[in-house]
Structure formats: C-alpha cells, structure tokens
C-alpha cells in the first residue's frame, strides 16, 4: 500500500484551473484594499473556492506562513516556491499579483505545448498503426504472390522501418525504467548525487539552472530589502528546505564567510547559477543596489526563460510533421513498390 501511494496522484492536489481562479480572485480582493484574512473570508461566497479558502485561512490562523498554508491546501509547487521566496516582502498584494502572473504564464505555455503536440501525436500513432498493419498483413500477401521475392527498395524500407521501430521501442522501455528507478530512489539520493545526475541531462540541466538562478536572485533580493545582516541572511537561506539547491549553495557561502574569504572564487564553481547572476553577486556594491539589481535580474530571467520556451514550441510542429511525412512516404513505397513489381511480372 505504501508503494501504491507513491505513484497514485494526491487527491488533495487542486486542478490548474482552480488554482488560477483562486489566485485571480484573491488578487482582485486584495486590490480593493481588503486584508489577506478578509479576502480569504470573502472567498467563501465562491462555491468552488469555499473549501480551499477556509483551509488556507485555518492554516494562517494556526500560525503558518502563506506559502505553508497553500502547500497544505494542495497548490502547485511553483506557487508555493515563489511565495516562499518572496515571503519577507511586506506588500501582500504585490506578492499575489506577481505569483498569479507567473503561474498564468506557466499554464499558458503548458496548454500551448499540449495543443501543439496533440494532433501531430495522434497522427503519428495512427500512421504507426497503419504501417504496422501493412508490414504484418499486406506485405506478406504480396510476398506470396511474388513467390517470396520482394523488390530491393521495399526490402530496404522494411529493414529501416523495423530498425527504427525497435530503436524507438527500446528507447521507450529504457526511459520508462529510468523514470521508475528515479521515482523509487530520488528521496534516498544525496543532493550532490542529484546535481551530478542533472549535469548529465542537457535539457533538464538548463531548466534547473534557470529555475535555481531565478529563485536564488528573488530570495536574496527579498531578504536584502528587509535589512537583514549577511550572516543572518545566509543562515536563513541555508536552513530553508523548500529550495534544496539554494540551501546547499548558501551553506557553502557561509563557510567561506566564516573563513574570512570572499565568495568570488566559490561562485564560479556553482554550476546551477547563471554567469550573469554570479557577476552581480561578485560585484562590490551596497545592499540596496544589490537588492535592486537582483530583483531586475529575477524579472528578466523569468521572461527570458518563457521566451526560450516559446521558441522551442514553435519548432515542435515542423519536427512532428516531418516525421509524419516520412511515415507517408514509407507507406506509399511499401504499397506501390510491390504493386509495380507485380505488374511487371504479369
């Protein structure tokens, strides 16, 4: 049963639509000058949000922070992580507004990706089934009519198709096994080992690097704006558990400060922080200027990340349709080649 629970979806998790609606309504309530508590209390009049708002409000009244309250209510980890990062900001409306905008942007690109991939993927599945039917049923019939001899072109096509099919099947099985092993063992793997694994997966490495840089800059900037001393700031960052990579890096920075060294050399070894961010952190500027630069960097980095994602989505359809075109050519050659050969022998 314990194993089953690890793979079954959490029933407490909210739908994307519900989370977006909750953030939108909460943002609107706060924009009218209501406090967070009054806003959550007023949300009980939204039938589908009543239970969620009561749960969040109950957690807040129990002394929990907003990010902790929303985490227990089943909100997406990206919402919880961002609210934790900006926890020290005084303006609650600004926090919720920015969180809503970021999550809305995330949902927009996820849905755009799904729409882009959906129909080409359906077509690929249909053509794959059609190609399998031709090779398993139609081609053997032609082979019997032609006394076991198939045209060289068709033999080549069959060989390439079989090779491609088995390669994709092996890749699918291997990927499934890797995912299952990761789900089983990820909680027992040390952070250093995880970082080593991330470095070997190019696309995921880039994603983790951008996310870590964004969260690091936003959290560092938010804490600097409170006037927190550097020693206390790094201690706070190292003790938090929601962003383990940032906690790991903060501990390393703490050690350097305790040894009386500068962090310039250390920052260059932090592979999951972008070079632009490390340049800002290495600059000798006052806390106020540093907080401002980090806040600007955080805004730019998240915009850049979504722009790159949009560019990637643009290339997906042409790739899928090229593969579908290859399927059509294979089907045409597989059907027409033996027919022409059969006509020549008549």
TrEMBL record:
Protein name (record): Type II secretion system F family protein
Q: Which top-level group of life is the source organism from?
A: Bacteria
Report the principal subcellular site. Answer: membrane
Q: Which UniProt keywords apply?
A: Cell membrane, Membrane, Transmembrane, Transmembrane helix
What's the source species for this entry? Oceanobacillus aidingensis
What the record says about family reads: Belongs to the GSP F family.
Membrane disposition: Multi-pass membrane protein
The record's listing under Pfam families reads: T2SSF
Type II secretion system protein GspF domain span? 22-139, 216-338
Q: Where are the transmembrane segments?
A: 119-138, 158-184, 313-335
Q: Where in the cell is it found?
A: Cell membrane
């Amino acid at each position: 049963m314990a194993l089953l629970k690890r793979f079954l979806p959490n029933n407490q998790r909210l739908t994307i639509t519900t989370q977006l609606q909750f953030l939108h309504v909460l943002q609107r309530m706060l924009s009218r000058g209501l406090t967070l508590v009054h806003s959550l209390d007023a949300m009980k009049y939204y039938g589908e949000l009543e239970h969620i708002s009561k749960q969040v409000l109950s957690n807040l009244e129990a002394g929990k922070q907003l990010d902790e309250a929303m985490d227990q209510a089943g909100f997406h980890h990206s919402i919880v992580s961002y609210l934790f990062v900006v926890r020290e900001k005084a303006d609650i409306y600004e926090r919720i507004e920015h969180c809503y905008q970021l999550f809305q942007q995330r949902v927009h690109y996820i849905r755009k990706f799904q729409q882009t991939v959906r129909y080409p993927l359906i077509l690929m599945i249909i053509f794959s089934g059609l190609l399998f039917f031709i090779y398993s049923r139609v081609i053997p019939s032609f082979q019997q009519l032609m006394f076991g001899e198939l045209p060289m072109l068709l033999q080549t096509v069959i060989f390439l198709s079989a090779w491609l099919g088995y390669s994709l099947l092996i890749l699918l099985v291997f990927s499934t096994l890797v995912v299952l092993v990761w789900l089983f063992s990820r909680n027992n793997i040390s952070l250093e080992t995880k970082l080593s694994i991330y470095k070997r997966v190019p696309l995921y490495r880039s994603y983790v690097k951008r996310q870590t840089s964004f969260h690091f800059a936003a959290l560092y900037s938010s804490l600097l704006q409170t006037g927190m001393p550097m020693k206390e700031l790094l201690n706070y960052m190292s003790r938090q558990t929601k962003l383990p990579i940032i906690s790991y890096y903060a501990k390393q920075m703490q050690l350097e400060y305790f040894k009386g060294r500068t962090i310039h050399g250390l920052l260059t070894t932090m592979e999951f922080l972008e070079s632009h961010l490390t340049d800002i952190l290495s600059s000798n500027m006052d806390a106020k200027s540093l907080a401002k630069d980090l806040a600007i960097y955080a805004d730019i980095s998240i915009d850049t990340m979504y722009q790159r994602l949009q560019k990637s989505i643009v290339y997906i359809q042409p790739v899928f349709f090229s593969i579908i075109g290859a399927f059509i050519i294979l089907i045409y050659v597989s059907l027409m080649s033996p027919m022409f050969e059969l006509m020549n022998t008549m």
